[in-house]
């Protein structure tokens, strides 16, 4: 996690410097060709690129700050940060997954209908909505029926 945190802080500095350089470059470009641009319609700063690159810096700062706080709160080093750690040290149980379950595909079909409905015609979203609800409920409660009931 230490490497990830440092990487995002470096990215934040890079994007911050890039935003400043982009702004200066757009001002220099505007000053060198003022006769091609109508007055009062262009201020010299190309705002879309400047704000986009600055938002990249802010996003990197946000992620780096989150990782810094998380590393401080975890109370120790992760196995990825210890040079003498074995592969098995960082292999915890993630959870229980059903490899035979059909519900994720039903959910994907319902979501595909919903998003296609938002793009093509809203009537498809009304078909996809109930399929999504049925798939979520079915996936959640698949271990409460038949052979797998507990």
Question: What can you tell me about this protein's structure?
Answer:
The mean pLDDT is 86. The chain contains 4 helices and no strands. Helix 1 runs antiparallel to helix 2 and helix 3 packs antiparallel against helix 4. The chain has 2 domains: 85 residues; 38 residues. By secondary structure, it is mainly α. The relative contact order is 0.09.
Molecular shape: flat
Question: Helical content, roughly?
Answer: 55-70%
Structural class: mainly alpha
Please describe the biggest sheet, giving its number of strands, its sense, and whether it closes into a barrel. none
What's the tally of helices?
Answer: 4
Q: Let me know the number of strands.
A: 0
Indicate the proportion of strand residues.
under 5%
Order of helices and strands: HHHH
Q: What oligomeric state best describes the polypeptide chains here?
A: single chain
Mean pLDDT over the full residue set: 86
In short:
Helices cover 63% and strands 0% of the residues. It has 150 residues and is mostly helical.
Short descriptors:
single chain; 150 residues; mainly alpha; 2 domains; 4 helices; flat
Layout of secondary structure:
Layout: H1 2-32, H2 47-74, H3 103-119, H4 122-140
Helix pairs in contact: 1-2, 3-4
């Amino acid at each position: 996690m230490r490497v990830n945190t440092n990487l995002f802080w470096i990215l934040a500095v890079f994007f911050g410097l890039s935003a400043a350089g982009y702004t200066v470059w757009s001002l220099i470009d505007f000053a060198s060709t003022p006769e091609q641009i109508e007055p009062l319609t262009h201020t010299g700063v190309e705002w879309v690129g400047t704000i986009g690159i600055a938002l990249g810096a802010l996003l990197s700062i946000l992620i780096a700050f989150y990782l810094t706080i998380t590393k401080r709160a975890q109370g120790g080093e992760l196995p990825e940060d210890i040079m003498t750690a074995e592969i098995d040290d960082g292999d915890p149980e993630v959870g229980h997954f059903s490899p035979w379950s059909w519900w994720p595909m039903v959910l994907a079909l319902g979501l595909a209908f919903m998003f296609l409905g938002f793009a093509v015609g809203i009537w498809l979203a009304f078909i996809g909505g109930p399929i999504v609800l049925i798939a979520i409920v079915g996936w959640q409660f698949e271990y409460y029926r038949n052979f797998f009931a507990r």
